Amino acid sequence: MVKSQASTVAQYLAELPDEQRAEIEIVRDVVLANLPGGYVEEMAWGMITYAVPLEVSGPTYNKQPLLYAALAAQKRYYAVYLTTVMDKFEESFRARWAETGKKLDMGKACVRFKRTSDLALDVIADEIARLSVPEFLDWHAENRAKGAARAR
Fold it and tell me: DSSP 3-state helix, strand, coil percentages of the chain (rounded to 5)?
C-alpha cells in the first residue's frame, strides 16, 4: 500500500494484508501506550496520524491538525514519522538508537523499517512520550518562528 483512502484507522488496518497489519499493530500499540493525553489518533494523508486537534491548537498554516507522529505501511517498507526528531531532539534520538545496536534507517523525520524487530521500540516509545500537547505546541511555535526568521 502506498496511500490509503481509508477514512478511519479501523478501515486502514482492515485493508492491510495480515502480515502488514500485524507489523503496524505492534508499533501502533507502542504509540498508543506512550502517547500523552490530548493527541488524537485519526487518518490523514493516507496514514494513521497522531495530532493536536484544531480546537486545541487553533488555526494552522495548512488548516490541518498539527502532526505529532504518524504510522504507515508503504509499498516496500513501513514508516514511523516523528516530528520532534527534526530539530533539537534528533541528536539524542540518534544517540539512544545507536546504544541499542540496531541499524537506523531514517530520513528527516521518518524511521523506515522492514520488520518491527528492526526497531528500537523503547526509543520510539520514549520519543512518543517526549512532549505533552502544551509542550509540543510551544516546540512547534518556536520552530515556526525560527523558520520565519530564516526566510527573511
Answer: 50, 20, 30
